[in-house]
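> call design_seq(struct)
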């Protein structure tokens, strides 16, 4: 698996993610995604890359097949903190891809000088919580009614990993 900067060339690869009910349920992507969401989303990550506040990568296998996204929705370089995230389409699930993406993304963040990586996972998303555990993240707790998506408030669990934490 390799990560490459999330860019316009990856927009056609997003269809499976954007059409997947589980992806829509467990992420901040609006339901249904607005027309041209993929293009707008990619543009936001490209702008964030330019100003140092976001980063995103497409995960591809050795043959160039899309395996998912590795996202850094927020970077606070002064504080040395970043929120990380990952999305895997149904065709790539159940093979350890999400764990591999998160481990690679975490290593990238630490190489960038990030001292605290954080995951914000919707309460009840047990699959994502298992990925966090396998990637060496520690559950810190639950934030109640913290996320608003389409008029509904949601609880989330917060997970973290520090460079001093043992490798999984």
């Amino acid at each position: 698996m390799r990560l490459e900067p999330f860019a316009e060339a990856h927009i056609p690869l997003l269809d499976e993610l954007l059409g997947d009910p589980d992806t829509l349920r467990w992420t901040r992507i609006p339901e249904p995604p607005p027309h041209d969401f993929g293009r707008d989303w990619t543009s936001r990550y490209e702008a964030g890359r330019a100003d140092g506040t976001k980063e995103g990568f497409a995960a591809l296998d050795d043959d160039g097949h899309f395996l998912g996204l590795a996202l850094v929705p927020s970077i606070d370089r002064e504080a040395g903190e970043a929120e990380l995230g990952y999305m895997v389409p149904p065709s790539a699930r159940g093979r350890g891809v999400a764990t591999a993406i998160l481990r690679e993304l975490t290593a990238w963040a630490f190489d960038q000088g990030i001292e605290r990586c954080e995951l914000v996972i919707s309460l009840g998303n047990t699959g994502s919580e298992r990925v966090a555990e396998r990637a060496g993240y520690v559950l810190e707790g639950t934030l109640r009614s913290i996320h608003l998506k389409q008029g509904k408030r949601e609880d989330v669990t917060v997970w973290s990993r520090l460079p001093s934490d043992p490798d999984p």
